[in-house]
C-alpha cells in the first residue's frame, strides 16, 4: 500500500462530467489499495472571475477579503468531488485549508505555507482509507484567523506541500497536457514531451514563464524530495500514461545542452535617458524601487562615450510597471535623467539546460539565429544554466520556434 497525493487543475474539474472523470482516476488508485489525498483547483475560469469581482468592487481592495473571495472556487470543487466519490462508493470528505490546517504567512494573495498538520487526514485514512479531498490554493493565517491564498497557480504548491506533510510516496499533478514539454505545446506543436526533467531545470522553466507548475511547488518538491509527476487527467482513467517525472540531475542519462524554451509575457521595459554617468546612479534608481517592493529583473547600463551621460534599461513585471514609472518620475531631479521611456510590448524568451554548464557559445548561437529572422534583442541576461533575451512581443512565437529548432528540440 502506498500513500498518494493526486492534484487536479482547473480544466480537469471544469464541469461535473470532468469531476466524475476525476473520481474515476481516484477510484483506480483507491481500488489498488492506496491511501489517497486529492488536491483540487477551482473550475477553470472561476478564479479569474472572482479576482475581477474584487477589482470591480474596489481597485484598492482589502487583500484579506480578496483571499476570502478567491478561495471560494476551490471550496466548491472539493465538495463536489467528495460527493462524486461517495456516489461511486468511495468514502471521501472535503477539507478546506483551515480544517487541515494548512498554516501560512499573512502575505495575503501570495502567502507561503509555514506548516501543515497532517494528523487528522492520516487518522481519516485509518477509517476505511477515507479519501481526503483538499481545497488547493488556500490556507489560514493562524494568528489573525484569516483565510489566505498562495498566489496564482498555487494548488500545485498545496499538493506538493501536502505530499511532504503526509510523507506520501508520490505526488501526481494531473493537468490538461500529458507532461512537461520542451516548450509550451500550445505554442509549438513540434514540442516534445520529456520523460524526466531535472529539478533545477523545472525551477527555471517555471520561473521563466512555463505555467505548468507553480515555481514554489518545484522548490518544495526539490527540498522535501517529493517524487512528483506531471500527467494528463484526459488519459483513460483505467490506463493512464505515467507523464513526466521531476527528478535529480543524476537520474537523467542523456542530457541535451538545452532542455527547454520558456517565455514570459509578464514583462515591462523601462529606459531612463541621458542619465548622469557618475557613481551612485544605480543606487539612486534601484534603492527607491526596492523600497517600494518593486522587483527588477534584467538591467543594462551603457558605458558613456563622453563620460557625461548614459542610458539605463531594466525590466519589471507588468503589475509593477505603472508604480515603477510613478516612483521614478517623482525622483527625476534627484536621479538626474532627461526622460523615461516605458513599454509593456515586450516578452522574455529563455533557453534552459543543465548542459550549458559544460558548453560554451550556447547563447551566441541564439543571437545569430534570432538576428537572421530579423528579431532585435533589447536586453540579455545569462546565468549558469539559462539565458534570456528581451524582444518585441510580436515576435514571441517566431523566436520560441526558432530557438526550439536551433537546439534540436523539434520532434521528428
Ligand atoms: P492546471 O489548470 O491544470 O493547473 P495550467 O494551465 O496551470 O493547468 O498549466 C498547464 C498548461 O501549461 C498547459 O496547458 C500548457 O499550455 C502550459 N505550458 C507552458 N509551458 C509548458 C511546458 N513546457 N510543458 C507543458 N505545458 C506547458
Ligand atoms: N485556482 C487558482 C488559480 O487559478 C489556483 C490553481 O488553479 O492552482 O490560480
Ligand atoms: Mg496551474
How would you explain this protein's 3D organization?
- It contains 13 helices and 18 strands.
- It has 2 domains: 3-250, Carbamate kinase (3-Layer(aba) Sandwich), CATH 3.40.1160; 261-411, VC0802-like, CATH 3.30.2130.10.
- Strand 7 (138-141) and strand 8 form a beta hairpin.
- Helix 7 (199-207) packs antiparallel against helix 8 (215-224).
- Strands 3-6-2-1-9-11-12-10 form an 8-stranded mixed β-sheet, with helices on both faces.
- The protein starts with a strand and ends in a 6-residue tail after the last helix.
- It is α/β, with parallel strands linked by helices and 412 residues long.
- The mean pLDDT is 96.
- The structure holds adenosine-5'-diphosphate, aspartic acid and magnesium ion.
- Adenosine-5'-diphosphate (ADP) binds at residues 9-12, 41, 153, 175-177, 180-181, 183-186, 205, 210-212, 260.
In short:
This protein is of the alpha/beta class and 412 residues long.
Largest pleated sheet: 8 strands, mixed
Determine the number of helices (DSSP H or I, runs of at least 4 residues): 13
As a whole number of angstroms, the C-alpha radius of gyration is 23 Å
Summed up, the domain count is 2
Specify the overall morphology: globular
**Straight-line distance between termini:** 40 Å
Which cofactors or ions or other ligands sit in this model? Answer: adenosine-5'-diphosphate, aspartic acid, magnesium ion
CATH superfamily of the largest domain: Acetylglutamate kinase-like
Compute the number of strand runs: 18
Secondary structure: helix percent: 25-40%
Q: In CATH terms, what is the fold-level topology of the largest domain? A: Carbamate kinase
State the CATH architecture of the largest domain.
3-Layer(aba) Sandwich
| Helix vs. strand class | alpha/beta
Mean pLDDT value: 96
Ranges where pLDDT stays below 50 over 5 or more residues in a row are: none
